Amino acid sequence: MRPLRILAVDDEPPALDDLSYLLRGDHRVGRVLAADSSAAALRLLEAEPVDAVFCDIRMPGLDGLDLVRVLGRFAHPPAVVFVTAYEDFAVDAFALKACDYLLKPVGGERLAEAVRRVAALLDAPAEPRGEAREERPAERRAPGPGPERIPVDLGGVTRFVSRDDVAYVEAQGDYVRLHTAGRAPLVRVPLAVLAERWEPHGFLRIHRSFLVSLRHVEELRSDAGHWTVRVAGTELPVSRRHTRQLRDVLVRWAPAPGPDTV
């Protein structure tokens, strides 16, 4: 793969210098541009497209989130890595399909992992689009988005959990706990928001406190009029208002009988 072209954006000169220095030290990076504001970043991008933008979030004027929303309207938007001192924006970052989310101060190993993710994203085979033509470097992009990945902070390290790995989601105040095999991280997002976003992808609200992945449902049971569902080995309550919908949806999700079915 050719060397990456990266734009670093931060309104604090020491932080911008450190980020640019670390990026230049990565063997996969060929050119690093630097901007001290979102406006300056957009001016640079008009003259020279890049493969990825590593940007701060809290900046005066147009902040990092706003900048990425503008980039999303580009014909060929660059990959985005947020570099911030704040954990509170992780949900917004994941909604904007950020490639990674780094917490300051950023170490060399963690930054190298972010660069690796950018390189992997850009190196993915592109979908064929009609007549073959030579592709300019700035036009090389990954195929359409796969399953959403949710950024979670685990001991100061931001990890990403794939939506497809989540068996069920449990509401805990303003947070939700994502139950996957082996761990159940907390994410700051209301259950109602996640339910609306994930319903088209095989998730269903079964209770005011639970959202389940239909592919992980093992059993639906009734005991004296009280319904429960077993998901990934855990029994969860089903509220009366959601019972009929769950039963109907599970019937539609059931595999069609094979030729040997009696």
Main beta-sheet strand count, sense and barrel state: 5 strands, parallel
What topology, given as strand order, has the largest sheet? 2-1-3-4-5
Rg over CA atoms, rounded to whole Å, is 22 Å
**Residues in β-strands, percent:** 25-35%
**SSE pattern:** EHEHEHEHEHEEEEEHEEEEEH
- The DSSP helix count reads 7
What level of helicity do the residues show? 25-40%
Low-pLDDT runs: 127-145
Distance between the amino and carboxyl termini? 54 Å
Total strand segments: 15
Shape designation: elongated
Question: Please, what is the CATH homologous superfamily of the largest domain?
Answer: Response regulator
The top-level CATH class of the largest domain is Alpha Beta
Mean pLDDT: 82
Total discrete domains: 2
Level-2 CATH architecture of the largest domain: 3-Layer(aba) Sandwich
Structural class: alpha/beta
The fold-level CATH name of the largest domain is: Rossmann fold
Describe the structure.
The chain is α/β, with parallel strands linked by helices. It has 2 domains: 4-123 and 149-154, Response regulator (Rossmann fold), CATH 3.40.50; 166-253, LytTr DNA-binding domain (OB fold (Dihydrolipoamide Acetyltransferase, E2P)). The chain contains 7 helices and 15 strands. The strands form 4 sheets. The protein has a 5-stranded parallel β-sheet with strand order 2-1-3-4-5. Strands 10-9-8-12-11 form a 5-stranded antiparallel β-sheet. A 3-stranded antiparallel β-sheet has the order 13-14-15. A hairpin with a 2-residue loop joins strand 6 and strand 7 (157-162).
